[in-house]
C-alpha cells in the first residue's frame, strides 16, 4: 500500500490546519505525525483514512491498483480517543461483531485476542463496566488485530499504565512489521519505534 499526498491543504472555515503537504507513506514503514495540541495531527490522519476531504491538493491510495476514496476504509484500521466502542456489548461480543465487517488477522480469534490482552476475566463483562485503560486495550485490539494494510493509531497509549504500554509495544512488534503504521502523537513513548517523523508544524 502507498498513500501519497500532493500539495495537500486542509482548512476549517478560514483557518488553514496544514498547507502544501507533499509526502508518501509506504507499507513496511512506520510514521509518527507530531505537533502540539490542536496543530492538526488528527485532521491529517482523518484525511489519510479517507474520512475527511482536502480543500487543496490530493490524497491518493494505491495497492496493486489505485483505490478510490470511498473504498479505502476497507484497507484501514483506526484507533483514536474520539472513536466509540459499543459499550452495551461484552468484549467477546464486540470482537465477534466487528469481525463480521473486517476480518481478523490470519489465525486470530476473539478468544485468543482476549487472552493476549490479559482480559480473560473481563471477557463476559459489558464494555461500559471497563476501566478507561481496559477500554483502550479493547480499542487497540479492534484496530491492530484487523486484517488491514494500514494501521492508524491516534494517541494510542491514552489511559494505559506501564503494563498497557508494554502490551502496546508487543502488539506493534508482533503484528505491525509489514504494514503501514501511522501514529499521531506528541508523546515519544507512543511513537519511538517509528522510523519516520513528520511534524505538522512544518506545513503551516
Ligand atoms: N470539525 C471541525 N470543525 C472545525 N474545526 C475543527 C474541526 N476539527 C478540528 N478542528 C480544529 O482543527 C485544529 C486541529 O485539530 P486536531 O484535532 O487535528 O489537532 P491535534 O493536533 O490532533 O490535537 P490534539 O493533540 O489536541 O489531539 C484545531 O484548532 C481544532 O479546533
Automatic annotation (TrEMBL):
Keywords: ATP-binding, Nucleotide-binding, Transport
Chain ranges of the ABC transporter domain: 3-202
Xref: PROSITE patterns: ABC_TRANSPORTER_1 (PS00211), ABC_TRANSPORTER_2 (PS50893)
Matches recorded under Pfam families: ABC_tran (PF00005)
Gene Ontology MF term list: ATP binding; ATP hydrolysis activity
PANTHER family found in the cross-reference section: ABC TRANSPORTER ATP-BINDING PROTEIN ALBC-RELATED
Name listed for the protein in its UniProt record: ABC transporter ATP-binding protein
Provenance organism: Niabella ginsenosidivorans
Amino acid at each position: 500500500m502507498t498513500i501519497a499526498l500532493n500539495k495537500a491543504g486542509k482548512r476549517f472555515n478560514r483557518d488553514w490546519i496544514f498547507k502544501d503537504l507533499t509526502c508518501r507513506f509506504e507499507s513496511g514503514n512506520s510514521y509518527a505525525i507530531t505537533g502540539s495540541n490542536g496543530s492538526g495531527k488528527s485532521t491529517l490522519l482523518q484525511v489519510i483514512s479517507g474520512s475527511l476531504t482536502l480543500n487543496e491538493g490530493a490524497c491518493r491510495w494505491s495497492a496493486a491498483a489505485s483505490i478510490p476514496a470511498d473504498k479505502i476504509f476497507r484497507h484501514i484500521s483506526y484507533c483514536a480517543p474520539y472513536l466509540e466502542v459499543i459499550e452495551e456489548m461484552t468484549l467477546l461480543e464486540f470482537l465477534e461483531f466487528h469481525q463480521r465487517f473486517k476480518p481478523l488477522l490470519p489465525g486470530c480469534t476473539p478468544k485468543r485476542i482476549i487472552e493476549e490482552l490479559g482480559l480473560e476475566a473481563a471477557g463476559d463483562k459489558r464494555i461500559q463496566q471497563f476501566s478507561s485503560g481496559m477500554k483502550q486495550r479493547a480499542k487497540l485490539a479492534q484496530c491492530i488485530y484487523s486484517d488491514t494494510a494500514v494501521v492508524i493509531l491516534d494517541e494510542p497509549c491514552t489511559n494505559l499504565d506501564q503494563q498497557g504500554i508494554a502490551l502496546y509495544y508487543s502488539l506493534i512488534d508482533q503484528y505491525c512489521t509489514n504494514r503501514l503504521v501511522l501514529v499521531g502523537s506528541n508523546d515519544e513513548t507512543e511513537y519511538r519505534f517509528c522510523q519516520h517523523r513528520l511534524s505538522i508544524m512544518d506545513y503551516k
